[in-house]
């Protein structure tokens, strides 16, 4: 399977204890949706390698994973920093106007006042705020992902509808 058929679940943070268990950071809204996983894919170079799970514990601020065959601190250390992936089919279903960031890449951005503006290049998390990145008149424009600014995503027509604050585009166009 191609990497595009997977989503990034999180990453291995550090070893836990002496028997090869690992702390994992899960970059998801509800980690408890993944507390019965039996395997994950670990990125090793350009490849995604399946790892089978002996035990997984999901708790507030603590996610522990014990992989089959990883039975020492030394083996666990080899996985630190590596990203964890799952097939797209593991993504939870969303409500009507919700979307996953990867879904809207390539969608048209259409503003209620300005019309079609450009294509979604990517979505970036800037700590407290997620932003949609769009190319407009050969400039990269960041659009805050709030309900007020992005009231609707039309998946059928692949359009992100916006109500941009007055002057937002001008900030990026003025040298």
What does this structure look like?
This protein has 175 residues and is mainly beta. It has two domains: 3-90, Beta Barrel (Elongation Factor Tu (Ef-tu), domain 3), CATH 2.40.30.60; 101-173, PRC-barrel domain (SH3 type barrels, Roll). It is 6% helix and 47% strand. The protein contains two helices and twelve strands; from the N terminus they run E-E-E-E-E-H-E-E-E-E-E-E-E-H. It has helices at 73-77, 168-173; strands at residues 6-16, 21-26, 39-44, 47-59, 62-67, 83-87, 108-111, 115-125, 130-136, 139-144, 152-154, 159-162. The strands form two sheets. It has a six-stranded antiparallel beta barrel. Strands 10-9-8-7-12-11 form a six-stranded mixed beta sheet. A hairpin with a 2-residue loop joins strand 4 (47-59) and strand 5 (62-67). It starts with 5 loop residues before the first strand and ends with a helix. The model has no long low-confidence stretch (mean pLDDT 92).
What's the CATH class of the largest domain, please?
Mainly Beta
- How many helix segments? 2
Helix content: under 10%
Shape: elongated
**First-last Cα distance:** 44 Å
CATH architecture of the largest domain: Beta Barrel
**What is the N-to-C succession of helices and strands?**
EEEEEHEEEEEEEH
**From the helix content, strand content and strand pairing, which structural class follows?**
mainly beta
- Looking at the structure, the CATH topology of the largest domain is Elongation Factor Tu (Ef-tu), domain 3
| Largest beta sheet: strand ordering | 1-2-5-4-3-6
Average residue pLDDT: 92
Query: What's the CATH H-level homologous superfamily of the largest domain?
Result: RimM
The main sheet comes to: 6 strands, antiparallel, barrel
Low-confidence stretches: none
- Over the alpha carbons, how many angstroms does the gyration radius reach? 20 Å
Tally the beta strands. 12
Please report which band the strand proportion falls in: under 5%, 5-15%, 15-25%, 25-35%, 35-45% or over 45%: over 45%
**Number of discrete domains:** 2
Family: Belongs to the RimM family.
GO molecular function: ribosome binding
Main location: cytoplasm
Subcellular location: Cytoplasm
């Amino acid at each position: 399977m191609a990497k595009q058929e997977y989503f990034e679940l999180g990453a291995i943070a550090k070893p836990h204890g002496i028997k090869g268990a690992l702390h994992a950071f899960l970059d998801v809204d509800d980690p408890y949706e993944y507390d019965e996983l039996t395997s994950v894919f670990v990125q090793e170079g350009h490849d995604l390698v399946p790892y089978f799970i002996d035990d997984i514990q999901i708790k507030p601020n603590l996610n522990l994973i014990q992989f089959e065959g990883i039975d020492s601190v030394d083996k666990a250390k080899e996985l630190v920093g590596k990203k964890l992936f799952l097939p797209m089919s593991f993504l939870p279903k969303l409500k009507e106007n919700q979307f996953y960031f990867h879904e809207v890449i390539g969608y048209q951005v259409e503003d209620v006042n300005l019309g079609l503006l450009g294509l979604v290049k990517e979505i970036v998390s800037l700590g407290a705020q997620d932003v949609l990145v769009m190319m407009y008149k050969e400039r990269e424009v960041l659009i805050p992902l709030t309900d007020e600014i992005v009231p609707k995503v039309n998946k059928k027509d692949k359009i992100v509808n916006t109500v941009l604050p007055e002057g937002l585009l001008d900030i990026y166009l003025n040298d």
